Structure to design on (742 residues):
């Protein structure tokens, strides 16, 4: 209790007269558990986390991003659950309004029946027989019986199959079920379901954004640390290049690069296949023009780190340049880099959407938010929701990433830490 | 000062020269060259004709030889001929440049007019409700895709409430307006593009104004000025804002490139006849001469703006000297 006595002594000194009264005050001794809690230093990540949690909008952004990530990852699962194919076209149900259901066209139904007949010839035969026997259909030729069902409304055909009442009829009912599809967000210009395409678009746009941000951060880290650590001619060349790229109007340059045919470049020929060309090209272009901010940031912090004592100590101990950069400098740059990666994701998503919107980015039929908007432009008056939905997705994602970056910036900034 | 400007000018020219070569090379990588296109649209052209034509136009030569040829023609003042518009490039560019200049300058002025007061108000009361709301709107402004905003603007302000024109630059074939009438007519077409172009800039500028103003207000001389009993307006505008202006000029210079990038999208959405749309159309339509010239002009404009901004530093902050 040494510190309590000491505190009392100080109090006595300062107050003087009312010593008696003060001696009445007893200070409850701390329990061992509480003391341990008080004395334990908070780890860095806990401080950062508590700082971050104070920024309500940033937390909201993180939650939205998390939800979108889950949505993007579970896209195939949602597809199997709802049974809607993102590429299934239905020209008779173009531009359906949201919350509507659509019936598959006659040709699609007949193909499905044909498929059913070739896959299960015996079931089809017995079904046709019982349909004619019970005179549920008007034709007498067995081959036409099932096809006649397709001309009826789905519930009506369903009922007829119900009357047949065998297990085999149940199987055909499943086929009929797929003819009627429910579209939460309506359908687009080819009658494809907008909802499932938006989810697949999330997958594409998010992965492009995240990949670009990570790759460009790594490139920026490399270039920035080389320039900052070695200085001299390397620094001058790399930084002039960075400045030149930073001052360029990005979109015209990107359009020029996006318009080229990668197959004409000898080196990339083997890497690029027809299918993923547009996505790969997109990532390449965006990476090419987004490493500059990270490079400048890293260079700046490494320039100031270079003069610090612990780097000098490492050097005197004989550490190689590689070790110094990797072990002693990078941990100090990680925090601001994290912020710039987060902000970079939002920017990349915007650029991807812009290029796809101009028809130069991700090529259909692969859905991305940008090319969905591009296609929606054609019939903007009749189907405005087609243009509005992908835009809202972009806006929500980008604003979430920006808030997340802002929150992280406040959280990792040592000057802003309040205890 | 003069040597500084000269050095910067030479640097800028060098960057433009390098970029123009890169762009020239990239354009040779685009699918289909002019002769291929000609052959595909005219079945009478045989394979031998194609080879002969390629030799005639020098298309079979490596790109640097063609670049040298092209640049020597440019140096003689011959910008070439547009394949799609069937007019010399020089005739095409003049009015387009003016249109883009009007659009981007109006957008820039508009965004500064809104962003600076907003930024200053939030900086004067950091943490207040006003600051919070403004902050949210600047974030929304930065994050909103400008092409989507353009589409929404068209739906709302041109279709649902037909206040403004959905696209175009000015009314064609109408009655004569006179000077003021023409301006009014053009401004009707300008409102929506300017709105969609400036929103992102407003968000960026206001956030920047806020942070640099906060920084400036933290200085010791502000406290001194307050202690002296200077009026609030004088402290804000003369002591704080002038110092906040320096970083603002940086972002202004850097935003020139993003305004120009934005102009391409905005002009495409609103069918506004500017350089941005011309660049886009010519690259898409394989209109080689127009694409090269408009690309170089747009890059040069942005780079020159950066130079002007660098020079403006000296005006805002006398401590900066050019050596």
């Amino acid at each position: 209790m040494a510190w309590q006595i000491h505190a009392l002594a100080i109090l006595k000194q300062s107050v003087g007269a009312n010593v008696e009264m003060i001696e009445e005050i007893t200070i409850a001794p701390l329990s061992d558990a509480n003391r341990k809690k008080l004395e334990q230093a908070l780890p860095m990540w806990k401080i950062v986390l508590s700082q971050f949690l104070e920024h309500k909008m940033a937390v909201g952004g993180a939650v939205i991003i998390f939800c979108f990530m889950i949505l993007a990852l579970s896209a195939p699962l949602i597809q199997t659950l709802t049974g809607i194919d993102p590429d299934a076209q239905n020209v008779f149900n173009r531009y359906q309004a949201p919350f509507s259901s659509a019936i598959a066209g006659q040709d699609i139904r007949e193909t499905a029946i044909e498929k059913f007949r070739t896959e299960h010839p015996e079931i089809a035969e017995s079904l046709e027989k019982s349909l004619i026997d019970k005179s549920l259909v008007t034709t007498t030729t067995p081959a036409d019986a099932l096809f006649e069902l397709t001309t009826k409304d789905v519930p009506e055909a369903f009922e007829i199959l119900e009357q047949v009442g065998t297990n085999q009829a149940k199987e055909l009912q499943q086929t009929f079920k797929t003819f009627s599809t429910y579209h939460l967000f309506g359908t687009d210009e080819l009658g494809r379901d907008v909802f499932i395409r938006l989810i697949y678009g999330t997958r594409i746009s998010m992965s492009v954004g995240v990949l670009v941000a990570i790759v460009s951060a790594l490139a920026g880290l490399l270039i920035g640390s080389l320039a900052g650590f070695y200085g001299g001619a390397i620094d001058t060349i790399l930084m002039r290049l960075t400045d030149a790229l930073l001052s360029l109007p990005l979109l015209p340059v990107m359009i020029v690069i996006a318009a080229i045919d990668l197959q004409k470049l000898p080196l990339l020929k083997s890497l690029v296949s027809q299918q993923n060309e547009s996505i790969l090209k997109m990532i390449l272009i965006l990476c090419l023009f987004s490493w500059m901010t990270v490079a400048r940031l890293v260079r700046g912090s490494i320039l100031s780190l270079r003069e610090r004592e612990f780097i000098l100590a490492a050097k005197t101990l004989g550490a190689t340049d590689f070790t110094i950069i990797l072990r002693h400098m990078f941990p100090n740059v990680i925090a601001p880099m994290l912020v710039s990666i987060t902000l970079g994701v939002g920017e990349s998503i915007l650029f991807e959407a812009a290029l796809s919107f101009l028809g130069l980015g991700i090529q259909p039929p692969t859905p991305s938010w940008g090319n969905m908007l591009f296609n929606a432009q054609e019939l903007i008056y009749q189907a405005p929701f087609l243009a509005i939905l992908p835009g809202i997705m972009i806006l929500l994602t980008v604003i979430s990433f920006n808030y997340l970056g802002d929150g992280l910036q406040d959280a990792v900034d040592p000057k802003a830490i309040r205890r | 000062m003069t040597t500084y400007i000269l050095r910067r000018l030479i640097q800028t020219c060098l960057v433009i020269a390098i970029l123009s070569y890169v762009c020239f090379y990239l354009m040779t990588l685009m699918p289909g060259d002019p002769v291929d296109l000609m052959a595909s649209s005219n079945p009478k052209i045989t394979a031998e004709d194609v080879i002969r034509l390629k030799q005639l136009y020098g298309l079979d030569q490596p790109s640097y030889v063609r670049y040298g040829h092209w640049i020597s023609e440019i140096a003689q003042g011959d910008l070439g001929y547009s394949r799609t518009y069937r007019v010399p490039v020089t005739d095409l560019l003049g009015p387009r440049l003016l249109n883009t200049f009007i659009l981007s300058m109006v957008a820039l002025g508009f965004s500064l007019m809104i962003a600076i007061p907003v930024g200053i108000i939030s900086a004067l009361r950091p943490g207040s409700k006003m600051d919070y709301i403004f902050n949210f709107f600047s974030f929304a402004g930065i994050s909103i895709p400008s092409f989507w905003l353009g589409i929404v603007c068209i739906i709302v302000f041109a279709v649902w409430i037909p206040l403004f024109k959905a696209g175009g630059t000015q009314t064609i074939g109408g009655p004569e307006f006179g000077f003021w009438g023409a301006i009014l007519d053009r401004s009707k077409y300008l409102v929506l593009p300017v709105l969609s172009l400036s929103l992102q800039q407003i968000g960026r500028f206001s956030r920047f104004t806020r942070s640099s103003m906060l920084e400036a207000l933290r200085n010791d001389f502000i406290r001194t000025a307050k202690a002296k009993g200077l009026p609030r307006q004088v402290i804000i505008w003369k002591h704080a804002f002038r110092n906040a202006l320096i970083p603002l000029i940086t972002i202004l210079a850097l935003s020139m490139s993003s305004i120009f990038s934005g102009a391409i999208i905005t002009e495409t959405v609103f069918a506004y006849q500017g350089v941005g749309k011309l660049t886009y159309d010519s690259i898409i339509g394989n209109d080689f001469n127009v694409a090269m010239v408009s690309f170089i002009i747009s890059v040069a404009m942005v780079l020159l703006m950066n130079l002007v901004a660098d020079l403006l530093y000296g005006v805002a902050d006398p401590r900066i000297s050019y050596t």
About this structure: Chain B touches chain A through 46 residues (CB under 8 Å). The radius of gyration of chain B is 24 Å. The CA atoms of residues 122 and 132 of chain B lie 8 Å apart.
